[in-house]
Write a structure and sequence with these properties.
The chain is mainly β. 7% of the residues lie in helices and 32% in strands. The chain has four helices and 26 strands. Strands 15-14-7-6-18-19 form a six-stranded mixed sheet, with no helix packed on it. It has a four-stranded antiparallel sheet with strand order 12-9-16-17, with no helix packed on it. A hairpin with a 4-residue loop joins strand 2 and strand 3. It starts with 20 loop residues before the first strand and ends with a strand. 30% of the residues are buried. The mean pLDDT is 89.
Length: 350
């Protein structure tokens, strides 16, 4: 369709735009035989980001020090290189994050926060989480396979500071000041865990310390809500309670908080006048790549997998006080004078 001056031509795109799309075009001058420079524009179908659909859901402001393996990748890594911030779309539709930015804000005589601007094409799906990191190589070394949208500049203060996210017009989406002192979770201050919102979908007040928790495992849980991956050294025992980190992870416990009262338990129960050994343990419903088995022995030297020999009966599942499932099993054979010695243990494969 030509304009009134006959020099401008308007082209109607026949297909409606139903998903985020780049439109690229150039014009041809038949009189000179030349093509114009390529013009492009990005059209988004996502709803604009605001404080009702986007929330800062995790902050790892004081990571643990680099491991020997990580230092082999880059000897210049320090703990600040492993920082990250996660944002989440808590709405039921795709949100356009293009042009949104983490910005510095003046506080007394200094600027606080980090700086990062989302690319114009950034769309975050419903319930999706996106991560920005302090150092891409460091992040990819500690969290292999987890993608980030980019690196931010500056570093987060280990004693606490403001974090501020604005939309493309400068309106605040989320802004709060975390701290390393109670009532903020103190375990997030260099011990290994991150700060995270247990239920970001409820749009909690992020400036309220009581709405935040320290992650169950060291390193936090970037991009994943329904599963909690294990990061760290499996044989570590940070809380000195005698149980290593991978076992506490499998049981839905933290290796940073002594919790021996939640370890597997053996009891004697009586059924119709017969005594049986009862064995129960917590099973972390969000653990990934963990396999549980109960083994039995009569001398603590030779152990048998109870699933292979069929010696245990699954009694059922109950819930611990924190909502973690407890699985209960019972030996099928009763305890008697001829069968009075029996040992049970929980084995974790990962």
């Amino acid at each position: 369709n030509k304009g009134q001056n006959q020099d401008t031509v308007y082209i109607n795109i026949p297909e409606s735009i139903s998903s985020p799309t780049w439109i690229k075009s150039r014009s041809y001058n038949s009189r000179t035989g030349e093509w114009s420079a390529l013009n492009s524009a990005f059209f988004s179908t996502g709803k604009p980001a605001n404080d009702q659909n986007i929330v800062i859901s995790e902050v790892h402001y004081h990571p643990s020090a680099p491991t020997e393996f990580e230092l082999e990748i880059n000897s210049d890594f320090d703990q600040d290189d492993f920082e990250f911030i996660e944002v989440m779309n808590v709405s039921g539709q795709a949100i356009d994050l293009g042009g949104c930015a983490f910005v510095l804000i003046p506080v007394k005589n200094r600027l606080e926060g980090v700086e990062f601007k989302f690319e114009p094409t950034t769309i975050i799906k419903s319930n999706q989480r996106l991560v920005i990191a302090a150092n891409r190589l460091a992040f990819e070394t500690r969290y292999p396979g987890i993608e980030i949208v980019g690196d931010y500049s500056n570093r987060l203060d280990n004693s606490g500071e403001w974090i501020t996210l604005i939309d493309k017009d400068g309106t605040i989406i989320d802004s709060f000041r975390y701290n390393d002192k109670s009532p903020w979770p103190e375990l997030a201050d260099g011990e290994g865990p991150s700060l995270y919102l247990p239920d970001p979908s409820k749009l909690p007040d992020t400036s309220d310390a009581t709405n935040w928790s320290a992650s169950m495992t060291g390193g936090g849980n970037p991009t994943n809500a329904n599963a909690i991956d294990f990061f760290g050294k499996p044989t570590a025992d940070a809380d000195k309670d005698g149980t290593n980190a991978i076992m506490e992870y499998a049981l839905g416990l933290s290796d940073f908080i002594p919790s021996s009262n939640h370890f597997p338990k053996i009891q004697i129960i009586n059924i119709e006048g017969q005594d049986y050994l009862n064995f129960n343990f917590r099973k972390n419903p969000k653990a990934t790549n963990i396999f549980y088995s109960i083994e039995t022995s009569i001398d603590m030297k030779s152990w048998q997998d109870s699933e292979n020999d069929g010696s245990m009966h699954f009694e059922g599942e109950s819930l611990d006080m924190d909502g973690t499932p407890i699985h209960t099993f019972r030996l099928k054979t009763p305890i008697n004078d001829e069968n009075s010695v029996r040992y049970l243990r929980l084995k974790i494969n990962y």
